[in-house]
Amino acid sequence: MRQLFLFSAITLFAVAPSVFAADAAAGKAKSAVCGACHGTDGNKPIDANTPKLAGQHEDYLVKVLKDYRSGARANAIMGAQAAGLKDQDIDDLAAYFASQTGDIQEIPHH
User: Fold this and answer.
1) Is residue 75 within 8 Å of residue 67, measured between CB atoms?
2) Does residue 13 sit within a domain?
């Protein structure tokens, strides 16, 4: 019995990370609403006050979205958008935007 329990526990821990792993393809599918302000790939924000998401660090995006969801970071629009996100949604969105190449803005030389 003990061996069966040990085998089951090891199997669960081996499989669990793949079940809950972030999925950039799923994040892309979930990102349509984000595109309205941040651009479809996270590179074309609607204004200078809206950040680019493309190429940001995945763990940073996860933290920020969770902070908006919890209210630890205040923004009426982002708080409302993040309120309905599950942890898996946040992980997937972060994986998608982190996987995008950020546009490099040319700095004018004076």
Assistant:
1) no
2) no
